[in-house]
User: Which sequence fits this backbone?
């Protein structure tokens, strides 16, 4: 028995390291889960004079997708978001730190998956949501509580695994 | 001659132009507080850098937030609360001592204890083994004879 101890220790260490290989250090645990979404009032892109605030979406289950025209992974997830929007998912956009003011032209060219997308030029609202990079997506329930935060682009795999079951459950509860 | 002197003066001034101006140098006290606090805070983008040392865009924004709050008279603790409310304890390089971090804080002490225990037991055993080896006089004589040859 005794001679196996080093092997067992090695196996345990190797196990930890193996799991560590596949952990994503960007998945920072969000302190927002289960808490009300931070409130804000921001201008809506493409509709001068209009503003949007999360209160206006109360009573709906909705996604807040934080994106930026300069963000490559946001472009990668764009076609999938378009699909989701077509299937009736309520996606609101937050255009984060768009210093070059490209969002409106980009949305006109590629199409917009968003009900509305708001303009967070100085990035303050993004910081209030604890954003570290784009894209990030929050699921917010009817009461305005954040239920899920996803860091990185959404694709079909992520959607089926993380979002779809939660949305189903949230849509059922009224 | 005057021209040469002027050119020389410009040449001397060039490095000063090249230096990056601190965004808010008129309040060195606040800047010093930001730098001191920022050393113990994690930059969320380049995760192994401190918030004080990082040049990432988000780090600059967060320093701007800290600056504004400090100028508004907020204490260091309030600024830290502002950041942890948004980014969690992950932003702190010195996480607080609470149940989920007990293992993190106490782990080294526990491992030191285990190591010390193993060391003590090994020493004890070795001494016991040495005590058990009592060569009889016959064997000693033989050994001495061999050495004398």
Assistant:
């Amino acid at each position: 028995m005794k001679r196996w101890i080093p092997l067992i220790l090695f196996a345990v260490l190797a196990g930890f390291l193996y799991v560590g290989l596949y952990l994503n250090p960007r998945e920072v645990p969000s302190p927002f889960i289960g808490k009300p979404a931070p409130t804000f009032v921001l201008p809506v892109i493409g509709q001068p004079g209009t503003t949007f605030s999360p209160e206006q979406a109360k009573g709906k289950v909705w996604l807040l997708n934080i994106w930026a025209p300069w963000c490559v992974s946001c472009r990668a997830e764009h076609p999938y978001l378009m699909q989701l929007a077509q299937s009736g998912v309520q996606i609101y956009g937050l255009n984060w730190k768009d210093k070059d003011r490209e969002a409106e032209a980009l949305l006109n060219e590629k199409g917009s998956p968003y009900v509305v997308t708001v303009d967070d030029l100085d990035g303050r609202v993004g910081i209030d949501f604890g954003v570290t990079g784009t894209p990030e997506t929050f699921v917010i329930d009817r009461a305005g509580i954040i239920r899920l935060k996803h860091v990185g682009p959404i694709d079909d795999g992520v959607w089926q695994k993380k979002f779809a079951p939660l949305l189903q459950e949230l849509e059922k509860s009224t | 001659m005057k021209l040469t002197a002027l050119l020389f003066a410009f040449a001397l001034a060039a490095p000063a132009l090249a230096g990056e101006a601190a965004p808010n140098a008129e309040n060195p006290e606040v800047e010093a507080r930001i730098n001191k606090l920022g050393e113990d805070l994690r930059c969320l983008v380049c995760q192994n850098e401190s918030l004080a040392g990082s040049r990432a865009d988000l780090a600059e924004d967060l320093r701007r937030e800290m600056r504004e709050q400090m100028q508004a008279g907020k204490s260091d603790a309030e600024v830290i609360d502002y950041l942890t409310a948004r980014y969690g304890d992950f932003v702190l390089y010195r996480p607080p001592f609470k149940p989920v971090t007990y293992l993190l804080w106490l782990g080294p002490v526990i491992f030191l204890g285990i190591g010390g225990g193993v060391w003590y037991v090994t020493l004890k055993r070795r001494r016991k083994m040495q005590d058990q080896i009592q060569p009889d006089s016959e064997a000693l004589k033989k050994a001495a004879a061999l050495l004398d040859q």
